[in-house]
Amino acid sequence: MFLQKVMLHLYLLYTFCFMVGLNIILSILHFISPSLAKKIILKWGEKTTMTQNPKFKYEDWGLTIMSFKFMATVTHHMWMSLGQEAFRGEAAPDTPVFTMKGEKTSICKYIKGASSFGDGEFKQLVKDFSDIADFLVVYIAEAHSTDGWAFTNNIDINQHQSLEDRMSAAKILIQEDPLCPVVVDDMSNITAIKYGALPERLYVLHAGKVVYRGTEGPWGYSPPEVRSFLQKMK
């Protein structure tokens, strides 16, 4: 795990420098040529699937990429990611989570054969692979809270100040019928930290170990990649 930790630190350092540079360049370009800046941001949006989300227009999120709150959120996520312990081939951290009834449990109690957690296109994975995998959604800290890096035309949710806040926010997700259990992270964000899950991430756990570790979202959030992995397990 030591080597994996070193690689993680180097990767996060590189990513931080890249994001700072991107933020500065886009801010300058937006002043000189707003149309060119928009073109670059939209290209970036294609990789993060933002341009494919019918709920948001460019005006809702595009300019936020150049904001201080964007960089503050990215920096916070990277800082939290330094505590990752869920590496492929290693034991899956059995972190505490809470059911929607407020009962304390843990991640590994949901593992029977294979397990993964995430959201979005995740629902189709549940439909197609429920015969070989037990799915779980872990609701973690808000990535786009109203009092943080917020998009316009988004759901109005502030950063959770209590477990009740987090459970209340998770109920909005449940309205989308994820077709599998939903639990919420402890207020220490221990699951998000140990799984490097901020802002979103997909994992497959098997026999108490991490067998698939997706890249952190939004760039690396890839249900199709999980689909390919699970197909090999059939």
Automatic annotation (TrEMBL):
<dbReference type="GO" id="GO:0004800">
    <property type="term" value="F:thyroxine 5'-deiodinase activity"/>
</dbReference>
<dbReference type="GO" id="GO:0042404">
    <property type="term" value="P:thyroid hormone catabolic process"/>
</dbReference>
<feature type="transmembrane region" description="Helical">
    <location>
        <begin position="12"/>
        <end position="32"/>
    </location>
</feature>
<comment type="function">
    <text>Responsible for the deiodination of T4 (3,5,3',5'-tetraiodothyronine).</text>
</comment>
<keyword id="KW-0560">Oxidoreductase</keyword>
<keyword id="KW-1133">Transmembrane helix</keyword>
<keyword id="KW-0812">Transmembrane</keyword>
<comment type="similarity">
    <text>Belongs to the iodothyronine deiodinase family.</text>
</comment>
<keyword id="KW-0893">Thyroid hormones biosynthesis</keyword>
<keyword id="KW-0712">Selenocysteine</keyword>
<dbReference type="Pfam" id="PF00837">
    <property type="entry name" value="T4_deiodinase"/>
</dbReference>
<dbReference type="GO" id="GO:0042446">
    <property type="term" value="P:hormone biosynthetic process"/>
</dbReference>
<dbReference type="InterPro" id="IPR000643">
    <property type="entry name" value="Iodothyronine_deiodinase"/>
</dbReference>
<dbReference type="GO" id="GO:0061074">
    <property type="term" value="P:regulation of neural retina development"/>
</dbReference>
<protein>
    <recommendedName>
        <fullName>Iodothyronine deiodinase</fullName>
    </recommendedName>
</protein>
<keyword id="KW-0472">Membrane</keyword>
